[in-house]
Every structure is written in structure tokens, then in C-alpha cells.
Amino acid sequence: MQTLGGTIVEKETGLRASFQGTERPYVRATISRVDAPEVMRHARIYDVEDIPEQVGEQIRLEVLRVTTDRKTGTVWFDCKVA
Asked: S-S: 12 plus which of 2, 28, 57, 70, CB 3.0-4.6 Å?
């Protein structure tokens, strides 16, 4: 099991998207590494409308899938709360 952890820098709640053929709620978050704060990761946290952690707090997630947006080159970590 791959995990993703760090400090929440941004979060956007109440989003919906199709994931594995089903429309599901998710939260979009940018997470910085604790040991290297300049390294940011973009995460989509599925099956939740919101997460209790706020910007500036630590979070640990279980990674379900990693994808790259070819237009922007952004790597997305599709996750669930660990």
C-alpha cells in the first residue's frame, strides 16, 4: 500500500467526478511534504464531501492510483483517507 502524507496547503471541497465508472464526491487538495515543504503533491480524495483536516494541518492518505494530466504535466494522486 502506497501512502501520501504531509501538510495541507490548499483544499477545495464538495466536488464530484467519475472515478472507475461511478460518480463520486471528492476533495481536491495540495499537500506539501513535511521533510521538503517546497515539494507539492496534488491529491483527489475520493468518497468524501469534506475532510476534517484544515489548511496547515497534517494528513495521511492511501494512494489508489497515480495519473498524469498530459496537457499540464500535473501528476494527480487519487486517494482515500487512510
From this structure: 28
DSSP E strand boundaries for 1-82: 3-19, 22-32, 40-46, 58-68, 75-81
The CA-based dihedral angle spanning residues 55, 59, 27, 21, taken in that order and rounded to the nearest 10 degrees: 170
Residue type, 25: P
Q: Are strands 40-46 and 58-68 parallel, antiparallel or unpaired?
A: unpaired
Q: Would the pTM of this model clear 0.70, i.e. be above it?
A: yes
Task: Tell me the pLDDT tens digit for each residue of 7-48.
Answer: 999 999 999 988 778 899 999 999 999 999 999 999 999 999
Would you kindly state where each structural domain of the chain is located, as residue ranges?
A: 3-81
Residues in contact with 78: Cβ distance below 8 Å, sequence separation at least 6, in sequence order = 19, 43, 44, 46, 63, 64, 65, 66, 67
